[in-house]
Amino acid sequence: MVKQLSWKVGGQQGEGIDSAGEILSTALNRKGYHLYGYRHFSSRIKGGHSNTKIRISTSPIRSISDELDILVAFDQETIDLNAYELIADGVILADAKFNPTVPEGVSAHLLAVPFTKIAEEVGMAQMKNMVAVGASIALLGLPVDAFKEVIEERFARKGQKVVDKNMEAITKGLVYVQEEIGNTITKFRLDPSDGKKRLYMIGNDAIALGAIAGGARLMAAYPITPSSEIMEYLIKKLPELGGTVVQTEDEIAAMTMVIGANYGGVRALTASAGPGLSLMTEAIGLAGMTETPAVIVNTQRGGPSTGLPTKQEQSDVLAMLYSTHGEIPKIVIAPSTAEECFYDTIQAFNLAEQYQCPVIILSDLALSLGKQTVDPLDYDRIEIKRGKLVDWNDELPALENSQLFPRYELTEDGISRRVLPGKKDGLHHVTGVEHDETGRPSENPLNRKRMMDKRLAKLKSGIDFDTPVYLDAKHEEADILIVGFNSTRGTITEAKERLEAEGLKVNHAHIRQILPFPTDIMHQQMQKAKKVLVVENNATGQLTNLIKMHVGFADKLVHYGKYDGNPFLPSEIYKQSKELLVHGHI
């Protein structure tokens, strides 16, 4: 019996790889196991190697594993590409159809199972993925009944016959493996779970749910990997709440539509990836100049240009901070778990209205598309803050003659009262050129300086964000401080645990508020560490350079970048931390 193991299924894209992983993990989630899943897929609809790796545990986990216990292969390429991950006595469940072989140097057990043949006997060769699910649960020691509810839900719309055939395929795969191995391979049988009900979701779904909970009723966007699931989720849910989703002709239209909706008082968002954000930058500047709230989600992926659209990267940090021409107030936050994706999205809408500026939610592919166990969400935590929005029923001083409402009134905190269109005595100009307090265009040098100072003053005293930096930092004098952002949190946590098991003093700071930068918090943490390792999925050390600029301690800082399209593994961060502590460099 084991408390934790890792399972992977692979084959050609379009062979039901995702379905096999989804059905297995959904059933395990409902039984109370903790899960973390990551998909490797090509930027095409069909063909090309694809795999889904799922980590299963009786306790919370937040990263993919270094090693692999069970590999399910629908072709030889899957074995050749992934067998190196297998533990010494791991198992390969391979379709007997392609006469599988084990690469030289791999000591895993090979069990050839006639996935395709059994599926054909059941009635359809495509159901070989269900046979593979059955073969897998035989190794895991799980009852077949645990999958019945999942299969019924997934295939009910296709009729009871399809449901029954899929269950038959699972059962036959289970029986075949049980008869083949008997009690010879029992090490992969899972310990019982706690049976508690939890969510199992990708970061994109959590962002979409957070948008709904935060009061958003419009999404305008153009589909792009890896953000499209946000749009797909809201297409299903927003109409039920009186809202809508508009698929625009491009990202420029999406961003300007979001500005228009927010100006009218409707909380609205858009979501995209690097290429789409590049198109939005002029309109983001318009939101800053007109002091209009706007929420933008950037799900980072491999760049530049089309780059690696289905692979992991964290190389948009500086672009999100500085790409807008001119200088505007802007907030950039970076959730690191699916739970934070939910709560941070709610906060993003509040921040946008409180500070009347664009708010960017920075995610990455591993967080956006990686699926993980999420504890039940606390809806009592939801609080809607609309800032200095004038209530529709409040009376304003009457406007006389050619007077206008001072929408951009100079205030001590830089934030002016905001009125919705049609509000009596709230008439004012709105323009992208520099303007005075009523919105009238003005090129007066003194006015220009006052308006610039007013806008930039909004964020000078900090913002109302609950956790600028997630800290796991109990040591007053640490051997090393490991810093990251977005999806690397769980991986760093696991590496930290291994290092501390060897007696090292390790602190962890995960930056969640990138703009305004949490200088004071990071200064305090870096002061306590001998060395600082910054872990980021990019080549140029974008977060590392931000820390140098805002905090200093350049002599302590070491950038550890990975930019091959894959997320970090715990062993990689562990190894690099050891190298830094032993040799003083990587």
UniProtKB/TrEMBL annotation:
Domain named Pyruvate flavodoxin/ferredoxin oxidoreductase pyrimidine binding: residues: 210-445
* Keyword Translocase appears in the UniProt entry: no
Q: Which InterPro entries match?
A: 2-oxoacid/accept_OxRdtase_asu (IPR022367), PFOR_II (IPR033412), Pyruvate:ferred/Flavod_OxRd (IPR050722), Pyrv/ketoisovalerate_OxRed_cat (IPR019752), Pyrv_Fd/Flavodoxin_OxRdtase_N (IPR002880), Pyrv_flavodox_OxRed_cen (IPR002869), THDP-binding (IPR029061), Transketo_C/PFOR_II (IPR009014)
Q: Which residues form the Pyruvate/ketoisovalerate oxidoreductase catalytic domain?
A: 14-173
Q: Which UniProt keywords apply?
A: Oxidoreductase
Q: Which residues form the Pyruvate:ferredoxin oxidoreductase core domain?
A: 478-566
Q: Give the protein name, as stated in the record.
A: 2-oxoacid:acceptor oxidoreductase subunit alpha
